[in-house]
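Subject: for your reference before the review

Hello V.,

The reviewers asked for a structural picture of the protein, and I figured it would be easier to keep everything in one thread rather than splitting it across files. Below is the amino acid sequence we used in the manuscript, unchanged from the supplementary table.
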Amino acid sequence: QVQLQESGPGLMKPSQTLSLTCSVSGGSITNTGDSWNWIRQSPGQGLEWLGAINYSGSTAYSSVFRSRIFISRDTSKNQFTLQLYSVAPEDTAAYFCARFEHWAHAWGPWGQGTQVTVSS
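And here is what came back from the structure prediction:
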């Protein structure tokens, strides 16, 4: 059973770089057909997709974040990482990692999420 777990800092200051890691167990991030995604939910807002890295290492980013986002992976640790540069209070949100299975066109599983607060 595939499980995802986010880790990273809970509190940040404006202009810093947010770095979050998603650790995957029970399955490989190189499994053909899977992409590994970062999604966030700000207070009172819906889900917002930030970007993804797929099984071959190719990345895709939301146009909203393209200028300040980088997603990478470490296949030896079965982890993928989000870096979001120059954070601002508007980046305060719960951040989730999640798998998308392209063959099944299905989302899941999701990590439990990690709260990130940006405040001076």
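For the response letter, the relevant points are probably these. The radius of gyration is 14 Å. The mean pLDDT is 96.

Happy to draft the paragraph if you're swamped.

O.
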